[in-house]
Each structure stands twice: as C-alpha cells, then as structure tokens.
Specification:
One of its GO terms (cellular component) is cytosol. Its main location: cytoplasm. The chain is an alpha+beta fold. It has four helices and twelve strands. It has a single domain (about 5-200), classed as Glutamine Phosphoribosylpyrophosphate, subunit 1, domain 1, CATH 3.60.20.
C-alpha cells in the first residue's frame, strides 16, 4: 500500500460562474480502521482562497500551518492578500524545496483571482502544477471522482447548481472507495460570501 493511501482522502474543486466550490471527505483512518470522522482537509488562506490537502494526515497539518505562516508574512510585507496564482507558485516552490524528503501531500488550490475569475489547480507531492478550467481532484478516491465530475460538470454553473453538483460527485465517489467517506465538507465561495456546509454520507 502506498503511503499516500495510509490515511485515505478525497478532495475536489470545481469552478462555476464567478464562483468555485471545494469539497473533501471527513474520514481519518489508518488503512481500513477509522480513527476520526471530522478531519479537516480544507484550509482557509484568506476569504477568497482555500487549499485542500490529501495524503498523510500529519503532513497535511504541518503543511497547512507552514502555508498560513507564509501568507501572513506576505500580508505584512505587501499589505494585500495573495493572488491564487501567486499562492500556487508558493506551494509548488515549498514542495519542491523538500523534494528529497517530501511532504506526502497532494494539494488542491482554489481561489477567486482578479475580476473574480475562479482559479483551480492541483499538484503532486513534488510541486508539479496541473491547471484546469473545470475541476481538479486528489486523494484515494480520485479515480471515481474523475468519472463522477466528468459526467456531472457543466460550464458556467450558478452557485446553487455548483454546490449540488460537487456534493453529488463527492458522495458518489467516496461510496466507491473504502479509504475515504464518512460524509463531506463543502465550501462554496462567491465574490460576496462563503457558504460552508457539512454533508451526511454513508457511515460504514
């Protein structure tokens, strides 16, 4: 078994019309044993920028703290929040810096950039970026997430439809992966507000 599958995870980000949604499962496990059902994989950088981290849970927590610290330093120096593209480059550089003893995480970054244009990207544990215009996925459930998102995604969805689509895609996918699940955590971000919801899923 790969070390990336040790704790199990499912993270997905999807774009809509001037909005985006990012969602993750809530299970923390050790192989097939469930340890917790409220694990936080999505971390807020600022109100229009979020990062979801799949992979080894200890590295998820370490990396999220380091990135929050780096962003605070940036705000002190520049007196403004970081653009999503800039933040993606920061994450990529931070991961590549540790390439000989990498953080065992695969990030999903989602944010609203200039003119409220949504930006999403994912990368591997060495920081190789993969940009997308529709959706990005990460974690042990990524194969079934690709299938669900491919069949459900439509361009320029309104916030309500986007929330429904990403929620159904996440729940359908974690049901097909025994290492992730126990409900979901969804954040829907528009230019004016952030909606945060918890999904109930199968509990087995």
């Amino acid at each position: 078994m790969s070390i990336f599958e040790y704790n199990g995870s499912a993270v997905v980000a999807m774009v809509g019309k001037n909005c985006f949604a990012i969602a993750s499962d809530r299970r923390l496990g050790v192989n097939l044993q469930t340890i917790a059902t409220d694990f936080q994989r999505i971390h807020k950088i600022h109100p229009k920028l979020y990062i979801g981290l799949s992979g080894l849970a200890t590295d998820v927590q370490t990396l999220s703290q380091k990135l929050a610290f780096r962003h605070k330093l940036y705000v002190l120096r520049e007196e403004r929040d970081m653009r999503p593209e800039t933040f993606a480059s920061l994450v990529s550089a931070l991961l590549y810096e540790k390439r000989f003893g990498p953080y065992l995480c695969m990030p999903v970054i989602a944010g609203l950039g200039d003119d409220n244009v949504p930006f999403i990207c994912t990368m591997d544990c060495l920081g190789a970026k993969e940009l997308a215009k529709d959706f990005v996925v990460s974690g042990t459930a990524s194969e079934s997430l690709y299938g669900a998102c491919e069949s459900m995604f439509k361009a320029d969805m309104e916030p309500d439809e986007l929330f429904e689509t990403i929620s159904q895609a996440l729940l359908a996918s974690v049901d097909r992966d025994c290492l992730s699940g126990w409900g979901g955590h969804v954040l829907l971000v528009t230019p004016t507000e952030v909606h945060e919801k918890t999904l109930k899923g199968r509990m087995d």
